[in-house]
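In response to reviewer comment 3 from the previous cycle, which asked for concrete evidence that the modeling workflow produces usable outputs, we include below a single protein chain processed end to end. The sequence was submitted unchanged, and the resulting structure tokens are shown without manual editing.
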Amino acid sequence: MSDLSSPILDYSADEEFDPTQDEKTMALLSHVLTLVVGFIAPLVIYLVKKDESEFVKAHAIESLNFQISLFIYFMGCFALMLVIIGFFMAIALGVAALVLTIVATIKASEGKMYRYPFIIRLIK
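The workflow returned the following structure tokens.
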């Protein structure tokens, strides 16, 4: 039985990726550039590369969904700042986001698929 919260996802048993170095680099950038420009990097990479590489497309979509989810979660933290707990939640969420982004970047550089845990997948 598959664990849906697992960060590593076998996208499908029959779908194999053997990405080139350029594809690995673009997938890596779709994650790491979010630390600088937020959702803009994965959106641009998705729009430019979606027809060229399924590997890059999958990573860009996953990164974009993660950024959208983070925005929603941070809005919840800001609402909870009225009762102090939101400050601690925002700090924990920021640290978790940084760690998960680093993990996703490493997986992309290795040519592996990665799925962020606990995100809302609005873009398929």
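Helices lie at 21-32, 34-37, 40-49, 54-80, 85-109. We consider this sufficient to address the reviewer's concern, and the full set will be provided in the supplementary archive.
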